[in-house]
Specification:
The complex is a heterodimer of chains A (about 110) and B (about 110). By secondary structure, chain A is mostly beta strands. Helices cover about 0% and strands about 55% of the residues of chain A. In chain A, strands 2, 4, 5, 9, 10 and 11 form a 6-stranded mixed sheet that branches. In chain A, strands 1-3-8-7-6 form a 5-stranded antiparallel sheet, with no helix packed on it. Chain B is built from no helices and 11 strands. The N and C termini of chain B lie far apart (about 35 Å). The chains are: A mainly beta (about 110), B mainly beta (about 110).
Chain lengths: ~110, ~110
């Protein structure tokens, strides 16, 4: 079983749609959780951290369910510029700072 | 201004010919990481340095080595590249190895092996 699992997609949605991505992780000792965005042949860029209480940044909402070891990302009012791969990322427990990346979910927003 | 700089952006090498990828940082961060990302796959950690302390991942092949001569620079050496080593190589830094510490990524080096 992969340490961080995501549906690779692609998700093809029209502009203005709401889309949700899910992610599960296997290590219950994981301590920090993130969503990164990666454009084609570019480096991953931090989109947002994910907290148990849920957090929102504009059109983006992230949720963490520690009991189910489940992370989600909701994008409202999709823009063409949201087209990218979204990587679910978990920081390993202990003092390693090691990030475990999911395979990523590809989003294509169409006009 | 770029804070984590990787050179070159694209690198082509021949099967079996040693190649070195470089990473430099202006952040004075303690930790430098090397990730390998193959097409349509997740970035995978190869190793990291905490200051001068080298930390190898258990499943990183011996073909991959790294050097950190000073705080600012870190190199990835591939001693005998195979076709399967073609990938994007990402360097990242962080101030410390603690939870919620932000990672800063370079723009990556895309390696092709002919």
């Amino acid at each position: 079983r992969k340490e961080v699992e995501q549906d690779p997609g692609p998700f093809n949605v029209p502009e203005g749609a709401t889309v949700a991505f899910n992610c599960t992780y296997s290590n219950s000792a994981s301590q920090s959780f993130f969503w990164y965005r990666q454009d084609c042949r570019k480096e991953p860029k931090l989109l947002m951290s994910v907290y148990s209480s849920g957090n929102e940044d504009g059109r983006f909402t992230a949720q963490l369910n520690r009991a189910s070891q489940y992370i989600s990302l909701l994008i409202r009012d999709s823009k063409l510029s949201d087209s990218a791969t979204y990587l679910c990322v978990v920081m390993e427990g202990g003092n390693t700072g090691k990030l475990i990346f999911g395979q990523g979910t590809t989003l294509q927003v169409k006009p | 201004d770029a804070m984590v700089i990787q050179n070159p952006r694209y690198q082509v090498t021949q099967f079996g010919k040693p190649v070195t990828l470089s990473c430099s940082q202006t952040l004075n961060h303690n930790v430098m990481y090397w990730y390998q990302q193959k097409s349509s796959q997740a970035p995978k950690l190869l190793f990291h340095y905490y200051d001068k302390d080298f930390n190898n991942e258990a499943d990183t092949p011996d073909n991959f080595q790294s050097r950190r001569p000073n705080t600012s620079f870190c190199f990835l050496d591939i001693r005998s590249p195979g076709l399967g080593d073609a990938a994007m190589y990402l360097c990242a830094t962080s101030r410390e190895r603690v939870i919620n510490e932000k990672l800063f990524f370079g723009s990556g080096t895309q390696l092709s092996v002919l």
